Amino acid sequence: MSSHTLPRGMSAIVPHAWHTKLIVAVVLAIYMLLAACAGGPSQQRTARSTLVIGLDVSGSFQRNHESSIDFAANYIYARLNGLGGLKKPTALFVGSIGGERPQETKSFQPIHTFQGLSVPQIAEYLRKEYPSRDGYTDFNPFFDRVATLVKRQGLVLSPIDVVLFTDGIPDMKVAGDSLAKYKAIDLSDLEYLSKSVTLRVLFPRPTVAVNWERKVPRHRVRMWTVDDEVMNTWRKHNVSGAPPEQQDTLWKWIYDNVDYRVRSVGIL
Asked: Domain tally for the chain?
């Protein structure tokens, strides 16, 4: 029998085993290729994050209401489109702070309402839906509603940015001195929604900003305030007539002053 001749019964077995190994090798190669291809795009995907905008419609905020609406329109547009390196959220909710009566529940507009709109169109919508009126500034129902939305939408654990356009002065009736109102602001519903929850308070007076930073109880919620004297300089960085894609100076100002990355300090 020739050295190249297989014993009887082996002619069908050996080729079959060889083909099986070949198929396994090809399958593994394809799997590794697909895994490598999947790794590239996944790194380019937008990480899940939630942005919540609260607009103060109370009478006490009338002085800065118009400026805040114009800024909010630019801010929402820039964030939705990731301009100037600003973080692009995967979920957005916009609602009002304050109402005709205390503890009034508010509705929130989702991200779909603002997608595809220009800055002027967003500003027009905000003015129509959130006009300034002589109502209450009640923060606790707002925070409670935010927590409910995040849980209902399955957004728990992803980073959450809550941005308030407000004078920051609560209208709650609380016994004690003038600072007792700030101590009664309840952030407990936000504390454990995510490892990263940041509360940004824009447009309060400097003294009110300090009260939020020092008097509002919190443990895990990160806080950043920008007082009205700073916020009202935003127009200086806006190039009149230039499209949003060419407003690099404004987006950098927002990145450095508004969207500043706040570190967790675990205080209060």
From this structure: 2
